[in-house]
Amino acid sequence: MSIGRVRKHRHGVDISWQSFLKAIILIVFMSLFSFFLIQTKNAEFFSIRNVKIFGAEHIDHEIIKKIISPMIDQGFFGVDVDKIKERILQLPWVAQVVVRRVWPDVVAIAVKEKKPIALWNDNSLLSSEGELFAPEATTYPVGLPQLAGPAGEQILMAQYYAKMNSILMPLHSKITRLELTPSMAWGLTLDNGMKLSIGHKDILTRLNHFVKVYPKIVGDRGSDVEYIDLRYPNGMAVRWKPVT
For residues 223, 229, 232 and 233, what is the CA-based torsion angle, rounded to 10 degrees? Predict the structure, then answer.
C-alpha cells in the first residue's frame, strides 16, 4: 500500500512539474509577444524611410511629404493610412487618393487629380465634374478657356461652351472667353480675337446663322473684325478694326 502511495505521489509531482514548465513557457511567450507588439509601433525599429507619390502632376510632391510627415513617425505598423488619405483629400487638386503601406519601409500614395476644363471668373477652376476648386494660381494649366458669369451658373455655361464650340467647328475657331451677364445675356471671344454679342434668347440659333453667313460677310478678313452684334432679328452688325 505504501509503495502505491509513493507512485501516486511521484505521479502527482510529475504533473505539477509539467504544469510549472508550461506556465513558464507561456509567460515567456506572452512577454516576447508583448515586446514585439510594442516594437512594431516603434519608429526606431520599423521607421518609414520612403514616401512614393504617383499621379500628382500639379501638386508639389514635397508639399505632400511635408503634410504627412507627422503621420508616419509612428513606424510602419503605426501608420494610419485612412488619416493620411483624409488629409490629402483636402488639397484642392485631389479628386481621389489611395494610400498603402509597402513592406518594409514605404508609404505609397496614388493621386487622381481633378481635370480642369475652364477658368471660372478669373479666380478658380471648373472641373469636368462641374466642381469649382481654387488651387494656387501658379498651378493653373495654360490655355484654358475663360468662363465669366453669375454664381451657380458654371455648369450651364460649360454646357453652352461645348455646344457653341461644336457649332463653330466649320470656321476652325474656338471660344477663348464666354461671358454671361446677370441679365442672362451671352457674349464670347474667339481665338482670333473676334468678339460676338449674342444676347439673351435664341442663342444657338443666332450662332448657327452667324456661321452660315460668315464666308460672305467676313470671309478671309476675320483678323480685321473687332466686334459682331448678333442681337438683330434679321441680321448682324459688324464693327471693323480702324485702319492704321
Answer: 60
Q: Three-state SS for 163?
A: helix
The pTM of the whole model exceeds 0.85 = no
> Quick one: angle between helices 61-68 and 81-88, nearest 10?
130
Please give the CATH superfamily to which domain 117-240 belongs.
Cell division protein FtsQ/DivIB (3.40.50.11690)
Helix (H, G, I), strand (E, B) or coil at 210: helix
Cell of 155: 455648369
Which class for 154: exposed (0-12), middle (13-18), buried (19 or more C-beta within 10 A)? Answer: buried
Q: What is the dihedral of CA 197, 201, 203, 206, to 10 degrees?
A: -80
| Cβ pair 111, 94 in contact under 8 A | yes
How far apart, in Å, are the Cα atoms of 71 and each of 31, 78, 92, 136, 196? 28, 9, 20, 24, 54
Give me the residue spans of the domains in the chain: 2-40, 46-113, 117-240
Q: Is 101 left (phi over 0), alpha (psi -120 to 50) or beta?
A: beta
What DSSP character marks residue 80? Answer: -
What is the predicted pLDDT for the residue at 42?
52
How far from 205 is each of 24, 163, 202, CA to CA, in Å? Answer: 91, 11, 5
What is the DSSP code string of 138-162? GGPPTT--EEE-STT-HHHHHHHHH
Structure confidence by residue, pLDDT tens digits, 94-107: 999 999 999 999 99
- The CATH code of the domain at 46-113 is 3.10.20.310
For the segment 53-64, what is each residue's pLDDT rounded down to a tens digit? Answer: 999 999 999 999
Per-residue pLDDT of 118-145, as tens digits, reads 999 999 999 999 999 999 999 999 999 9
